[in-house]
Amino acid sequence: MIIFNDFKCEIQIEKYHNGNKVIRLVDTEDGIPVAVATVNVEGLQPDEIAIKDYSENEGMYQTLVKAGVISPMHKEIKQGWVTIPICKLINEYVI
């Protein structure tokens, strides 16, 4: 469980249609979706994940690193006006 924007969240790891990993945060009390923590960008390696840390997800990167869900970023991708941290899932979360 992690806390994001005052919500107690469960982490759900799934895959986008192209095989990239997606992290979803779901409220632990009522199961309502709180946030999608990732973006689906081309060119990721199978062990990489792109974190959405802008707009309504500001602070997501630090929250996930602090909670031990992802590693600190090892590179970043510029996409439009934003920079997207590229990280790896910590072993217990890898699917």
Question: What would your notes on this structure say?
Answer:
The chain is mainly beta. It has one domain (2-93). Helix content is 7%, strand content 38%. The chain is built from 1 helix and 7 strands; from the N terminus they run E-E-E-E-E-H-E-E. Strands 1-2-3-4 form a 4-stranded antiparallel sheet, covered by helices on one side. A hairpin with a 2-residue loop joins strand 1 and strand 2.
List keywords for this structure.
95 residues, mainly beta, 4-stranded antiparallel β-sheet, 3-stranded antiparallel β-sheet, 38% strand, globular
Give me the secondary-structure topology.
Elements: E1 2-4, E2 7-15, E3 21-27, E4 33-36, E5 49-50, H1 60-66, E6 75-79, E7 82-87
Antiparallel strand pairs: 1-2, 2-3, 3-4, 5-7, 6-7
Total domain modules: 1
End-to-end Cα distance: 18 Å
**Shape summary:** globular
Mean pLDDT: 93
Percent range for helical residues? under 10%
Number of helical segments with 4 or more residues: 1
Class computed from helices, strands and strand pairing = mainly beta
Number of strands: 7
Q: Strand content of the residues, in percent? A: 35-45%
Which blocks of ≥5 consecutive residues have pLDDT under 50? none
* Cα gyration radius (Å): 12 Å
H/E topology pattern: EEEEEHEE
Biggest sheet strand line-up = 1-2-3-4
Q: What profile does the largest beta sheet have?
A: 4 strands, antiparallel
What would you say about this model in short?
This protein is 7% helix and 38% strand.
